[in-house]
Design a protein that fits this description.
Low-confidence stretches: 1-19
Distance between the termini: 59 Å
Largest sheet: 2 strands, antiparallel
Number of strands: 2
Strand order of the largest sheet: 1-2
Number of domains: 2
Mean pLDDT: 81
Helix content: over 70%
Length: 258
């Protein structure tokens, strides 16, 4: 008799069997170890230790099933948000000057601090993408629930991830209707008022949709709790991976202190 696939089995099936070494691991352990690695990386202060942490993150990406090119491209997009801060930081921190631009001196101390921030951000984000980003949203929600996270917060996370695309489609339909009626955005009060109406209509439709969804779920026996099709359990590979990554974190701390 056919049986329903659990979150981990479904993930492996959808990826065509390319599970790497990360996806088969227990989701709870992956969340905990990602948090531990993030805390340890943020606590590092030397550039050499931070570079080693980034090397560990790249190694984890190599043993996972994430496509390196697309993953690094997403990392580059993330770096685009902080590049302005990194460029201005050498001019904001006093120290030994490197160069002067329009009477503003850039310091070596500010440059090294900018490098430290960049290494820290990339190492932490990459580990989160590898260990947590490869989970299905339902698997992530169930793992957070098993880690004693507030159930209301877990449900909110799962419903938000599920229906954010629905709201996007609703937004595109409303924008399409505005274009059919000859709307062209500009820098005038008519444009601002039209976008205000657009946001208000999206909120109204979101509330109406949420009421319909809640009614449909109650008809199917929903009582405010998510039922699991599969219970997660720690296995030997999970313990080995957790012990190995913990040893690496301790090594990074020792290397930083030395």
């Amino acid at each position: 008799m056919a049986h329903a696939l659990g979150p981990r089995e479904k993930t492996l099936s959808e990826r065509g069997g390319r599970s790497g070494l990360i996806v088969p691991l227990d989701p709870r352990m992956r969340i905990v170890m990602a948090s531990v690695f993030g805390v340890v990386t943020v606590a590092l202060s030397s550039i050499a230790a931070l570079a080693a942490a980034l090397a560990v993150s790249l190694s984890l990406m190599a043993v996972s099933d994430l496509p390196p090119r697309q993953t690094l491209k997403r990392m580059a997009m993330m770096d685009g948000f902080i590049v302005l801060m990194l460029v201005l930081l050498p001019f904001s921190i006093p120290g030994d000057p490197i160069l002067t631009v329009w009477s503003f001196a850039a310091s070596w101390q500010g440059l090294w601090q900018a490098v430290e921030i960049a290494l820290t951000a990339n190492a932490v984000i990459l580990v989160l993408m590898v260990l947590v980003g490869t989970m299905e949203s339902v698997t992530l929600g169930h793992a957070l629930h098993r880690l004693r996270c507030p159930e209301a917060l877990v449900n909110l996370l799962m419903f938000t991830e599920r229906y954010i695309e629905v709201l996007r489609e609703e937004y595109l339909r409303l924008r399409g209707a505005m274009k059919v009626r000859g709307f062209r955005p500009g820098t005038n009060w008519h444009t601002y008022r039209s976008f205000g109406y657009l946001v208000g209509m999206m909120l109204v439709r979101a509330i109406e949709r949420s009421e319909r969804i809640l009614g449909a779920m109650k008809c199917r026996g929903y009582t405010g709790r998510m039922l699991l099709l599969q219970e997660h359990s720690l296995t030997r590979p999970d313990i080995v991976f957790a012990a190995g990554l913990s040893a690496i974190c301790l090594s990074l701390l020792a290397f930083d202190l030395s």
